[in-house]
Structures
1.
Amino acid sequence: MITYMRFTQNPILTTVISAALLLASCEKNIDAISENFPEDGIVRIDASVEESVTKADLPYSGYAGTDLGLFIDYGDGDYYSKDNVRWVNNSGTWTPESQALWKNAKSPVGIYAYAPHISGADDHTSVEFSIPSNQTGGTSSADFLWCSMPGFVPADKLVNQKLNITFSHVLVKLKVNLTFGNQFGDSHSVKDVILNGTSSKIRCDLADSKVYDLDQSSSNDISMCNTSDYVYEAIFFPGKGQKSGARMLTVVMSDSKAYNVSIDSDLELTSGYAYTMNVKVGKDKTEAGSVNVIEWQPEKELGEKDSYIEEYSVWDGESTEPITKGSGSESDPYLIESAAQLAGLAYNINNNDNYVYKGKYFKLMKDIDLASKTWTPIGDKTHFPHLRLDGNGKSIINLKVEESDGYAGLFYWLSGTSSTEKSVVRNLTIRNADVKTGGRDAGALVGFTSFLDIIDCRVDGAVTSAYCAGGIVGSGDPSIINCRADVNVTVNAPASTSLNISVAAGGLIGDISFNNDKDNSITNCTVRGTVTVNSQDLRESVDSHVGGVAGLAFANVSDCTSYADINSTFEKEVHVGGLIGTVGAGGEIKNCSAYGNVHGKKNNFVGGAYGYAVGSHERVHFGGKIESIPDAGTGAVGIFIGHADGVFQTKNCSYSNVDGSLPVIGKDESKGTQDIKMK
């Protein structure tokens, strides 16, 4: 008690003791900082992914992705700020491509992370991500993740001197469980389940944790992943297909018949949540049953949704009928309501010298089954259609074309007159196509074209030609936008020819060139299947090209992916590429990937991305495999490109699944700067 009184009344003693206590406190604080903050000041990270909160035993799991992007924001102009640094996962150890340092232990910093890493995303308030339309191989490539930690104080929040990044899911996950009515008997063979009308690209504001539909005018149909018996999944961002009256799901059976699930009210889908939908496919209707939330986040319900089957109008192979509704204007298009009316349109165009439908608008009102009856293409040698067709989300199935002289497809020829007066085909699906010609050009949609926009279309089946063949277009100068082809494309080139044309095969188009206004391109498209060039023995002067997206391309190509297997079977100078066989002068290729197997022969120029190329190439990736060619002969084989020539310049290009015995560039005669790295 006396000690206490002396201590409290003596200011000098009080100051000494207080200072001692303060020093002890500071020492403890320094110890705490030293425990959490690295002595060298180097930023190190661990990454995990937030899972369902219903899994109480495992609130999060390690992020197993290959890379991520990290922003460290101390404010504008601060030396310690870092924008979009790519971190690479090496067996659980995260390594930055450029080292980052903490400013100090106590300065607050904004931490913003996302995955996977996107080159050029240098603003954390505006990170753009393209959602893949083909998720049949799995949904991982569509799972965009983010993490936001503003006001982060390293000394307080580092764990074991590491920055712990816990990602959340940005998009929506849907699981569809299919059951079947008795119309199918014991056989329930499903070819494809498609989630319709989703957003193709999103923009994320990492600072505010907000996500936006970047292009509301664009529509993305997603082929869902088959995870188990009659169970399908996709990751997406809601769009037009999740609105009242829209066709949300399409279930395609092995016979190419499509059963559509429509909704009667808007679906309120929340980012980061997963949903289930139970769909019964029956003779009279498909019934959308209970819809519940699973996994990512709990307790979200959509309620009951009804749906239906749209019956196909089946063609007998002969009947034609006139179109009776509409005036052909943009606001009042001609309405095609039956297979016979579609056949009638072909007849009228092919037998009318005055061509009354020039520049008119059409809308398909019913799914059409051409029943594998031989179809006469719309247009011929003297009649070149110029029209705008809205497929209206409908399908044409079992298209069979056999043309001896070329230009084979639903359309023989389809052209506009200029970049302001184009023909247009949009929102159309062609299934189970079988298109053949012994002549020059074949595509499921059209043999040859000029000034044509092809938008939001899908094709599957087989296309065969003697010279140029593509899944959608044989050759020409179209713009192909937001399309998908799941096709087997084959060119069987003859031993000799008097035609001065190239041999070209591509998953979308055989041969594409710039139109006179250079406003055409291939954008945001996906290809699966096979693309093959065969020949008996072509003469030396004939150029040959085969690729996943296009065989020969003098055009700009962006945001495209090919999973197709590419094949050349003859020993001549053939340009064989997983993405494009030959890229000509003036073309720019950006944000594209190829994942198929590439097979060549002796004397071929073979590359994972290109067989031969000039021009500019940015963020192009090859992740497939190249068949080993023991003797290249007069050709060359490269991991990325067979033959680089002229001004061939690459930026942020990459490859994986490497055959270490192959060079990156088989034959390099280029003048540009190459940036091609193993990823």
2.
Amino acid sequence: MADDVRLPANAFRELAPGETYQPVVAPGAPVPEVTLRSIVQGVIWSVVFSAAATYIALKLGQGIESAIPISILAVGFSVLAVKALKRRGSSLLENVNVLAIGATSGIVAGGSVFTMPAVYILGLEGRSSYFQIFLVPLLGAVLGVFFLAPFRRYFVRDLHGKLPYPEARATTEILVAGDRGGRSAVVLSYSAVVAAAFDFIGPSMRGWAENFSTASIGFLEGFTGKVKAVFTMNTSAAVLGLGYIMGLDYAAIIMAGSMVSFFVLVPLFAYLGQWVPGAIAAGAVPLAQMPAEDIFFDYVRPIGIGGIFAAGIISILKMSPVIVQATRQAFGEVARLVSGKGAAREEVRTERALSMSAVLFGIVGTGLLIFLYFRFSVLAADPRATFLAALATAMTLIIAFLFAAVSAWAIAMISITPISGMTLTTLIVTAVVLSALGLSGEGGMLQVLLIGGVVCTALSMSGSLVTQYKIAYWLGATPRRVEIANLLGVVVASAATTAVILLMAKVYGFAPGPGHPHPLPAPQPNAMAAVLRGVMGTGGAPWFLYGIGGVFAVATEMCGVSGLAFALGMYLPMELNSPLVLGAAIGWFLKRSSRDETLAKARHEKGTLIASGFIAGGALVGVLAALLKFIEDSAGIVLVKDLTTVATLGIGTWLSAWGNWLGLATFLLLGAGVYWDAHREKVE
């Protein structure tokens, strides 16, 4: 790629009447796209980031977008190929293909992790298998490709300049600036190493407390014990990086929701508990005797679930005009193709996509596979298996189609899609319907989870694919090759993600139990499990608490605040939300670190690279630690030393006593290091 390649001046603005957009690579240019090198590299990144995204989602309840780090690495390796191997570097469009294959990692991880671990939380693993869990994200991702394909022209061409596409724009800028991308790969690499070392010494070796808590401070013991107000903060580098990428606006909203939960609702429930002497829920202790953490999980968290559900409904209502318009356009294209009027449109390379006939065949074929999967897996022994499988398939297709447009719109606007809310909506709707038909218990819960997993992955794929469509549009890649690359990548990502889920389930678990005293938080799967236990189990659903959460979501939306972000903050533990604000604040200050806008932008972009490295490094070391622990448990050996057990010079005793403060100090020092390193950036 030439050094003078730039995006056209009209790439990010609306076009004037009669004006057209010409991509970076002209439609007739003989530039390679799909090569053996791009396929191999894309597959490698798909496996690596699938593992990272799966772990980070199970730990933090947040998915990670792999598009930006993969684009950086693709360009970086292209530069290295030229300098070290004396070979032609990858072309711009080859790197688009690398991205299309590799980015499926975050898609599949997001779809699988939000639902499939609930199989283990509900104790249903005996009714499932690796192959069964593997098929859920695979079928969902394929369905997401076919459902979004009819919307491609609407989102990338008809709405050109009307939607910001923040992630797509950032990724495109990285791919275009190839020489800068190679340097950026160095920053990403060393920050990943720093994060990996930090999170390995801390959480893995217990060099300091993984979560700082005011409950461990002596002079606050009376306050935390009586009032039940506790502040906690996770000290993971990965969480810090995630907060930086998220930005202060959303991090602040999420933290506000968390503060309402832990500083208002938990103390309020504790206060009201003095007039409720008995246990409210079966098997629970009286409310006044419960610690703050238990009050949150048993009574406040359902309020967050209700808020997420209501916010998902609101998102769909907001998107209804777009859904109608895009659907009308898709069927219009089918009609034109049938009449022969639309064939000429596909002659230009940059407009060549999967034909509408192929899309319709793909939807029908995938729907048939989903029906067979439902019919001969969970429902095989049910006398109404065929009817229930058909109903479940129809619900899956309808909900996934509606949510595909919602997800794409959300990504195009703010690069965040409400996966949790829409998946919870899916689970509640399908659980109520199937329960009304008599399908309950373990079989019913597993069936609902399978439906939710397929829908969740489909909408996740739709959100990611619309980003790739826009990148391809800006750069001049062939849409059909992007689509095929995604279909290839989801097979690899589904296999890798499923393997990591099974590993984490065996080593850490996702809910407290005899074999897993300190499980991974897995917040979304636990929410899914809680909903299913209530609707299809024997405990009954806390509908009143869900309703309170819905009121919070509506109220925040009326105030012009994202109801989904606020509800997510109410639902997630505070230790996962508070460090997001610190990471986001670092980014906010870097953006305003100089009156020279170019310099401030350069500093912030370097911080983005460091944060991306933190996410990747922290996630990968989490997977590594899980593997080491699995080997330790299997072989009966010690590979990772617990520093709190070191007797030399009283180190272990000191760490046990001061680990809480040491965790906070090292975490703040890490944040200061991010600011210092990014602030050193110069503008040439």
3.
Amino acid sequence: MTQLTSRDLWSLTFVGDPDVSSSGQEVAWVETTINAKSNHYESSIHIARKIGDSFGAPARLTYGKRPDGDGSLDRSPRFSPQGSHLAFLSNRSGKTQLWVIDIRKGGEARQLTNWDDSVSQIQWSPDGRYLAFVSKDQKPKTELKEGEIATGRDVTVVTRLRYKMNGVPGTVDPRPNNIYVVSVEDGCVRKLTDGDFDDAGPTFSPDGKTLAFTSCRKPDCEMRLIPDLWTVPLEGGEPKRLTSGKGPVHAPVYSPDGKSIAFFGHEKGDESVVNVEVLVIPAEGGEARHFWGDFDRSIGCGIGSDARADAGRPGPYWSSDSKYVYFLASDAGHSAIYRIASDGVGVDMVGGASPRSMEACPKYPPCLVSLGMADPGNGSVTFAFNGGSPLSPGDIYAITVPGDTCHAAGDACPLQQITKVNKDVLSNRPLSQPEPFTFKSSDGLVLDGWMMKPIDFEQDKKYPAVLEIHGGPQAAYGEAFFLEFQLLAADGFGVFYCNPRGSSGYGPDFARKVIGDWGGMDYQDIMALRAYMDTVPWVDSSKTGITGGSYGGYMTNWVIGHNHRFQAAVTQRSISNMYTKYGTSDIGWFGNKRGMGGRDLWDSESFIMERSPMRYVPFVKTPLLILHSEQDYRCPIEQAEQYYIALKRLGKEVEFVRFAGENHELSRSGKPWNRVERLERLVGWFNIHLK
């Protein structure tokens, strides 16, 4: 066995975005690898076909190369309704464009669009003749006339409130995103929506005559950003609005009978901490119907990981008889497949290792990230999903179950693992299995926690330990793979983490407990976990560290400014000054108000500064490492600069590491070399101060 190192990141493969052909006989997905030599990511489409009752060996379908000769990013595989072709997105020609490959005949993929801008959100028409996609208006072509001089001016005029976005260098391109339709036969492109609006999520009606999409077309869009559901004829015409701005709408899908449209959303305005649920509305408009009942959870996989490259879908998917809608949802650190009945109320679990029903579904991986589904109308439903665990970043699984029942994986419908992409890497690396536990906060609230023992653990020894805090705060830890945690365990540290109040996966009431109280009871929850660590016999309480990113970075700063229970700290992409974050973060002006319980700068200055770690810098004694990206627009680098200068001026032990060209997603999708550098800096800091 060989000790896990940060550079093992370069050897990992990440799967995701599975799609199932309409017959249920093929599954396609994306595999992403790291080219360490070129310091970038490459991805390709893979496919597996059914042989009898199970899927055969995976086969690589695409081999795209970028103009520089390195591998391309091929993603978003989508089977045609007839199953003869596969559409996908690729940057092999430069900008991300739409490509199609004939999977029956084989051969090379054919580029279908040659757009000035990248395209996204592809969707087949029912007859397979067209593909819808989303892109920006084309830039007008300008050519210098004879005698004219190019001025080379570099000036940006900003007139919008939402003018920057994390992950977008500079300022956001103000051109709107519209919906286009391209002919598969000849590549002819036609613009379907127009106007200064951002349109998204195109989906065809079963007869192919209409597209549904989402768009915010109200005067207050920049302030509230609540898109509505719209339809537009394929032949063009004026869009028709189906919803009335009660809440945000996304991912619309027509029922096979064409009578209804299912979508994700809620009807609680711009409130941020609510259950996103499945709603169903008549295709011609009317009142949206709710199905959640007493199901107090939200759509999608809300469980964090630093070893994932999956941009796939959580649903929704209709059954062929239009009776059921299937989707992913999260529950207390797990995620699973659920469904609703279009003529009932309530949510049923179809498959997954949910903590609420482990006895029903013990064979599924506990963390399902993205989902593909097909119901060919023969009495069975085929699911394919990316499933991971604390010991695996993720693999593609498939299962075929009776369409009218909720079945766990069993002898009658066995769960098949199609890929084992990291077996060769991780089977030779000892990993630490997290152990779940519960503990009580200062007010008696019971919270979920996990502990990871150091590799080569010996019962009678004492070990240093690190407490990890997740971001959000409306996010969650759970049964997922974290390379950072495994590296700490490999280096001889215990690792502790939990879901304090404010976390997702426990219902909106639990998530709302932190609103207006950052640094209040959430801090008490973290310190209760620290007290729990003192009760663990193998933890050396004189050698403990704390770290977290984003909101977890805020909490790290807050903790070391209020007590001295930790001997070292690493704050990542953090917040230190809630007041200045207001105008510098891409979500500052509305995120601050929501997080602070409706308080605004000009009416609650004292409160906002009281909840800012900057105010408590003089109290800090813990040696601190600051890790921050220079193009982080979510938690801007000025937050780190303020905190560093204040600590340094007062003679505190502090080190500041800046990552050029990186944004808020450094730990998850930054340049491979910088991701390794971050991990090595973090583990190295704790080695220096805790050993």
